[in-house]
Amino acid sequence: MSHFNEIPTESDSLTLVAAPDTGQRTDIAADVHIGLTAARKWLPCLYFYDEAGSLLFEQICDLPEYYPTRTERAILEEHADKLVAHVGHPVDLVELGSGSASKTRLVVEALLRRHGQLRFIPVDISRSILEESSLALVEDYSDLEVLAVAGEYHDGLDFLKGESGPPRLILWLGSNVGNFVRADAIHFLQRLRGAMRPGDQLLAGIDLRKDPATLLAAYDDAAGVTAAFNKNILRRINHELGGHFELDHFRHEARWNETEGRIEMHLVSVAAQSVLIDDLDLIVTFDDGESIHTENSYKYSLHEIETLAAAAGFTADSQWFDEAHRFSVNLWQPETAC
């Protein structure tokens, strides 16, 4: 933890640390330049998640069309006690991309019922949401200690490598694995396995393949919240890089790519236009109907989940589903914790 900066908090039960500013950290200027000068324009979905974007995503999770949060929560509500029975004691609970930690509370409560005390280590890119959710947790659970890490995934892995203590149950919920191209998902999971110690376990929520109509509705809601979330990446470019994007000159579009097994999110230019980005000294031209590809959400069959785990060096311990088999929660063990 010596390389992370400790930040004062309002509770003795909460320690908040922030990742150092190093050359490994993402560079929005470089990434935007690369993506918007490519033959097929794209932007990394990482940049959805400033404070405004994180709040919009929390709203998405409550939408009636957005089944992943509801179904994953239902699985955890039904099976949390069975799940923690597979976990040894003592144990630390870790979560990558914790957000509001609303679903995580179900696992926290199950572990507290079983063991009485617990340390929770959430990792999230949004420091404000991380601090808010962590304070709420220590206020609600007197036997819970929280060590919160503000940073990106790679910061979380660096922290896990340097942190000593008991075995850890690492949560990676919300089908965040689906935001990675399949080969990159394997690579990230291999890196995660490399940060794990003997006795550590991974609990991964993974969305399943299903009919395209259900998928498209989940990523293009009637209230337009997902559209606002998608356009937030343009708002960030305007705010942080001196961009001149007119948000209403782009429309949100969700597409199902059957060949790749993924939902794609695009921002489609509604007219031929040119956009100046001051800090990049760049003018980006768009044809009418040309899109910026902003996110993928890969869906998995049961066989693809097995293949993913094996390729990344994990073995399956247990697997749980909602009643309609729309979503899966998977408990994996590393074959060799490095």
Q: Topology as H/E string?
A: EEHHHEHEHEHEHEHHEEEEEHEE
Number of helices: 10
CATH class of the largest domain: Alpha Beta
Any low-confidence stretches, pLDDT <50, length ≥5?
none
The name of the CATH architecture of the largest domain is 3-Layer(aba) Sandwich
Share of residues in helices: 25-40%
CATH superfamily of the largest domain: Vaccinia Virus protein VP39
Percentage of residues in strands: 25-35%
CATH fold-level label of the largest domain: Rossmann fold
Oligomer: single chain
Distance between termini?
19 Å
Instruction: State the major sheet.
Output: 9 strands, mixed
Output the structural class: alpha/beta
Chain-averaged pLDDT: 94
Radius of gyration: 20 Å
Brief overview:
With 338 residues, the chain is of the alpha/beta class. The protein is built from ten helices and 14 strands.
Task: Describe the fold and architecture.
This protein is of the alpha/beta class. It has two domains: 5-13 and 66-211 and 300-334, Rossmann fold, CATH 3.40.50; 28-55 and 213-298, no CATH class. Helix content is 36%, strand content 26%. It has helices spanning 28-36, 51-61, 67-84, 104-115, 127-140, 153-162, 182-195, 212-218, 225-241, 302-312, and strands at residues 5-7, 14-18, 92-96, 118-124, 144-150, 168-172, 201-207, 250-257, 262-269, 273-277, 282-286, 291-298, 314-321, 327-334. The protein has a nine-stranded mixed β-sheet, with helices on both faces. A three-stranded antiparallel β-sheet has the order 8-9-12. Strand 1 (5-7) and strand 2 (14-18) form a beta hairpin. Helix 2 (51-61) packs antiparallel against helix 9 (225-241). It is globular, with a radius of gyration of 20 Å.
